[in-house]
Amino acid sequence: MLSAIRQLTARAGLLAAATSLLTGAGAAASSRHIYMATNSTVILAYTLTWSADTVPSVSLEYNANISVSNPQYTVLHPTLPVLYSIERGATYTPADWPLDASVTNNAGNLSTLYSATLSGGLAAVALDPTSRLPDSVVSRVPSLGVSPDFVGILGATPVTAAEPQPLGYPEDVPLFLATSTYSTGSASVFRLNTSTGEIIWPPTSVVFLPPDEFVASSNSRQSLATAHQFVQKPVSSSSTQVDTFVTNLGTDHVFEFSFDLSTGVLTEYDSQLVVPLGSGPRHISFHPTYHPY
Length: 293
Fold this sequence. Notes:
The protein is mainly β and 293 residues long. It is 6% helix and 40% strand. The relative contact order is 0.11.
């Protein structure tokens, strides 16, 4: 069976991973679950187990009853047993997902998007509390853009200038799910249910990156706005606003938005970071001193 799963892994093509650390009983053993997104319909779950006296072991499992359409990228909820995934192959009927144009910075682009079948989505997958395997899809929403590339968590983090902890979130702060779409050049934010982790419709904010910012490049992939990643700067849990960044591979820009941690609304700053011609920025990571790379 394990050999068959390994073959499936090779055929599916591993694209992204989300990890969660589970504490073992005392110092006897520890384990970490690693969830691998694929370009098929499954999310693979690896369990890495180790102790002070043994060689680490790895097991691989997946739930064939859970179907997620071309997931490719995943992220874990910081406090609940929920895994979020993009669904590149999902389609939605616009009439089933009404949306007020006031949530966007470009009503025209939104209208164009709603004039055809909505392509691309997000899924919230509940994890079995014991096995930590994907158990069931608890919610799905359109990504409001074609070819979603990224999904991540936005929210206040319990950090201080002296001891940054950019991956930690207190349990009593509102959290949001962020996604960016490659083919449409949009970024969207959805509120998460505080008890279940379900994705709540409608979105709190939808922004379209301006195509007129395009700078001519010899790279054939840089012909339009292509949002690749959407992340936030670590911020204290007492803050009400946080800076967020969307990388635009297509136009050699990194767009910065102020994000309201209560309402979930994005507000674009007047100035944006322009990177060298042809760079095609994809990802951002933060140094513990909050300097972005």
